[in-house]
Amino acid sequence: MRLGLYVNLYADQSDRPQLADAVEQARLAEEAGFDWVVLGERHLHRPGYHEALTSLTWLAAHTDRIGLATAGLIAPVYHPAWLAETLAHIDVLSGGRLTAGFVLGYRPEEFALYGTEPRDRVARFTECLDLVKRLWTEESVSHEGRFTTLTDAFLSPRPAQSPRPRIWNGGRVSAALARTARMCDGWTTSFNELDAELPEKIAEYRGYERGPDTLGAEVIVCREGYAAPTSQDARKALEEPLRGLYDAYGDWKRTSADAARYAQQWDDIEARGVIGSPDECAERLGGYADMGADGVILRIQPPGMPQADALRAIETFGKDVLPRLTR
Where is the Luciferase-like domain (predicted)? Predict the structure, then answer.
């Protein structure tokens, strides 16, 4: 079981542009034995949200060994050549530590910002990922598609990893699972995917035919997480800031099919999280391994949680939870 730390990129005037808290968390996660630091993407967030790819580059420069992942970039809004080149360079600069995770996106405002249409998102996604992989692995790429035309395009340098960095994709409907199996190397669940749904979803994903150029079919479960000496301590630290995040999600996800899942009670959140004492967290992580998960990404610090609380939880996972797991 591998463990990832989903790093909070929410910003305010006091922390722009240094990302000092994120660097401190990433370094501690590396020391504690986490496998990845993971960044998400958000645009048009008035209080502030650090841009994902430049932030990932900054974390690469301030860490040595830990994997660097996204979960996920909104693939349909990017030009494939720019995306392939930028991600390839992050892989080169980090010494081959990149995992590129994508999503379709759901906010109309974000599509409008980049001059794209939500109705085209699946077609743009498939064209984009196909070209990213080709640019990463082929000497020269020519393509005349619905959205992108390339003539003898190439990257130099290409990614450090051979044959290429791994690709994850999120999504919860059958079409997304089938597309992930066909085009990507791993599936990342939603943070609000119910535990009861996971075994069937994992089996469905792994039952679809994989594409000839995929590198595997790993399952990465995304979960709220907090480890503390007791479950009461964990709840005290996490509940209030997490409720604030979920209230905000209720508005952000108003056009998403899973918007209602962010209106759940604490007991529902706790039941599908990795939250509690070290023994409880280890048991929860072991349960996901038994379901067939290869890794778990933990979102430890919602906006509003003090940095000291987040660091304590990261340290507790490293010191008291990870040693209980079969790695």
Answer: 16-294
